[in-house]
Amino acid sequence: MFKRSFAFLSLLVIASIALTACGSSTPATQAADSGSPATSGNVIKIASQSPLSGDQSVIGVDIKNGAQLAIDQLSGPLKDMGFTIQLAPYDDMANPDNGVANAKQIVADPAIMCVDGHYNSGVQIPSSEVYHSAGLANVSPANTNPTVTTRGYAEVNRIVGRDDVQGVVGADFAASKGVKSVYVMHDKTAYGQGIAEFFQQEAKAKGLEVLGFEGTEEKANFDPIITSIIAANPEAVYFGGMFSQAAVMFKQARDRGYEGMFISDDGFDSSDAAKIAGDTLMAGAGTFYSTVSGPAAAYADTAKFVTDFKAAFNHDPQPFAAQSYDSAAICLAAIQNAIKANNNQMPTREAVAKAVRELKDFKGITGVYNFNSIGDPVVAKYFVIQVMSGDPAQWSANEIVQTLDIAPPAP
Amino acid sequence: MKKYLKPINLMELLRPLGQLIVFSLGSAAVLSIIVLALAIVLNNTAAGDKIFAQLKVSLFAYTVANLPQVLVDGLTLGFVYAAIALGYTMVYGVLEFINFAHSEIFAIGAFVGVEILIALQNAGLIGSGSSLFMDYVFLILAMLAGMAVAGGAAIAMERIAYRPLRNAPRLVPLISAIGVSFFLQDAIRLTESLTTGQFNRIFPTFGNFDKRITFGKIPMGAAELPFSVPIKSFIVIIAAVLMLVVLNYLVNATKVGKAIRAVAQDRATASLMGIDVNHIIAITFLIGGALGGAAGLLYALKFTRIDPYVGFYPGLKAFTAAVLGGIGNLTGALLGGIILGLLETFAGSYLSIFTMGAAGVEYKDIFAFAILILVLIFRPNGLLGENVTEKV
Amino acid sequence: MSNLSFKDLKTTMQSGYLPYLLAGAHVLIGTILVYLNQRSIIAFLVLLSSFFSLYRIKADMRYKLFIGAVLALIIIPVLGVRNIFYLEVIFQISVFSALALGLNIVVGFAGLLDLGYVAFYAVGAYLWAFFGSKQFYTLPYTPGSQPTDLPFLLPSDMFYLFIFLAVIVAAITGILLGLPVLRVRGDYLAIVTLGFGEVIRVLAANLDKPLNFTNGPQGITPIQRPPMPQSVVDGFNAIFGKLVGHQADVSALYNVMFYLMALGIIVIIIIVSRRLEDSKIGRAWAAVREDETAAIAMGIPLVKTKLSAFAAGASFAGAMGVLLAASRTFISPESFSFMQSIGVLAMVILGGQGSIPGAVLGAATITILNLQVLQGLSLYLSQLRQSDAVIPIINFAWKNLSSQLDPAQYQRMIFGLILVLMMVFRPEGILPAQRRIKKLASESAPNKE
Fold first, then answer.
1. Which of A246, A283, A365, C370 is the most buried (most CB within 10 A)?
2. Domain spans of chain A?
3. Is C339 close to A54, i.e. CB distance below 8 A?
4. Backbone angles phi, psi at A81, to 5 degrees
């Protein structure tokens, strides 16, 4: 009995240590708010929200890292103006409950001026309701669901294309290549399904025959679907979703002897895709993907970003890390403008949100951005890129086969 | 010395092989008949018309032409499930509790094996230029290493998280197992991110595992469908069968196996008979863990990509398979695995055609669970589970 | 030896007027601390823990209820409007407490292991999400292609009716699930319920065709909230405006409203649970839990007993689902994953199976751990990393700490560790049910050789 109670006591001690440790965070935070001498000058924070734990953390952590890198590299001018910029990374666990709770915590911290966030549209939509009610600017690096901006909130912006545009780009490309029949697949996420639905609509409108439309959460075993694909023998297979599924599926389909064309979306743009599928991407009619972030060939900054990112975090950036970098950079630029407009004083949140919307031709590493009245990028450049090598190291040598400037649907 | 010279019990080696063949052929035949009957029924309905308009073949011809490939894919998947299910069922048989963390043991095996192979590839020992023989040797070595680490992890897990709970109420070790499962998922992730910085680990391309043996082409209307099986599917099936046979022999024809069975039947009496119960339970975990580890590498070989959370779904399916067959029963795990693998592949391949796209491949998991619930209604202890009277 | 003096201290603290004073002081100190340090986690925890000290003191029930009511109905809403994060935390604690209490009936009272409890929550949420949004009119459209100018199907005050409807619908779902699995025992039940939970989630993600019922993974939005008259907002500002320090807006008051509703549902659940536990059916549950075979022999109708447990547990989750859908105005299948079911189960086990205060405490502990403690810890670390701070003795600059060692990234690991330690060292939970204490004591006694 004694042993047990001792053990329980030690458990309590551990817990209380953990509590004290985080308790001590509180005075530090508050000291920072009131501009204590320790940090010298005014502290402005940019919050990031993404899944940092759980099985979607692979991408979520790099959204945070992208923002961190942007702050490390680009906050120089603000520092010169006497402001200290910090990142406050929040973990939404890909769960709306956590996302909303964090959003409320973010809103309650007056030092936070801008949110770079959310990977899951399912988390972004309820969380941004909170940002909206507090007038806090939100720049989304990854949410392609139309609802994100169609609500017309003045605070919510995104730098990625919308599902209803990117799906169309893929379908137009397939039509221009003379593809007559296509098999459409998606990953059963809001992102992948959205793109696939719009791909299907546009493909039908362009006279392509859609031989199948399937969604699957499966990450490994695509055999049953490939059986259907081989039987239907479409000229192209479209996958709306992330590389981690698409590349596995493409490889398995090639192994089974499918010779047609593979097309995917910007979730495919990762050198890991080549690591998974290797030379099978080059076989048959080849592999293409549409993206808003150009390859290194189009944007020299992208190559630098990859090098810097690798140096800082010891691994290749995952999809949306570069977009997150740009989102944070947009936040920084807007904060800077708002400070200037406010005679070098701490700006209000409303001023920052307004400054984000009013940014003109912001040149990021993934493109040049202007926002329209609902926060979509005015004209996004879409690239269709062909995979040129099965070697992951050569991923940046992939070639642009088509460049399109497309405006989002009218708000 | 004498006990090592005991003649090998041939019967115990042959019996599981016979069972395997009967189960595979039996369930394949039953499912094929059901699907073909459905195809005949639906042939003249809208579903049949749709497929005819698209591919210019009747629904029945479509079903027949695709059947061989579906059967082979289903069986391969079934053997993977069976190999994982063995670990669940071993532990359940002895301790009567669901070892939720078995799926992470599986993931550990996969990671250790794949990391070793990646290291070998970076060292230039496998990949282009290496001899086929050495490729297979290294594959087996990687698998053995995965089995060793996974088995060790299973023993450690038992010692730390389960042994103190031997006499606790039934739910307590289950929650502990869920805790261990979460812990291990993140432990793998932490290790990977501190060492390689990679989450997605890819099974290296080497040897002839990706090659396919073509058995010819099946005519379907004007088109021809290739029917081929990759070498790695054979490896998976052969390895799984070997594991089953060895395990069966171990449990049913050796002294340790006898002790395991005794502990499973009645722990208190077994200990009165001079059996070290803790020792036997540890051995059970070792065996179950090693099997899980081997299954992990087989999974990585077959499906290429693994991540720290890779164990969850296969683990869930294997667990379902074990329950379907009758948990605690080795043969049941085998049967359950095969049936589940076939069911999933059948559903994934045909559901969309039969329902005209209203329900597609995304329902294959629901389908598996629905069958499980149906089976449990009529056989509450699973297909081969004995109706054990509760120990009061 | 020291143990004895600790005991003495405990007895003095529990006698006379001292407990009244202590508990009152605890509430007061908590309130003042939170009022002065708007964003301090410690202050908030002090305030929240005063519920616990109120519960533990030996005092007149009326005193406890009065102070508790003042704390829950006035102090927390006012402080919550000052910092809506607190309101969100306490709202989530209430939601999860209600879920844990519901699951406690199934797992704790009747001993049926349910790994898919969140399915009933989803049933409730989707019920209001479908009828309380424009979804009915989008039935023929594929997700994303519907016109934007559709009307709402029902007026928003139907929300209240749907709370009751959800109770009924979820209970029926529980019975429908219970019927086929009745013959299944123990661990088989676990896998069947787990499967059921997955089935509901997959259905939610896939019922966007042939008719678009759930909008698939895109989720349903906007979902209506019950109406909030401007007079309520003005009234709140008139009374509490000075204390809050700024004018509360509608969204903050919605938060208060949903918190109060969740609180109301919890009170109902606690009363119902208490009454059920001591009723005939409650004793039947206990009998089935302790020994099914003996229970049948005693003439307890197994079917009815198990079904009623399922139905009772499910109905509460259904009601909370409606509340969730309205408070979030958005619902997608992601909210109803297996992890959620496990989370709620862990709350019940952590608090103590079959223990009503235990379920509430378990829910509070895990929610706070999730939302505040681990998050706060990692924010603090990240702040240290961005500063020039150095660990004094070993002269290690925080900047060099690998970002991979962020505690927020390993929440599941910490959660898992807590579960294991808890089970190994205190398997009966933090606040074990009275009956269970007796049972464990008598069980472990003969085993000691």
1. A246
2. 41-161+302-378, 163-291+381-406
3. yes
4. -85, 0
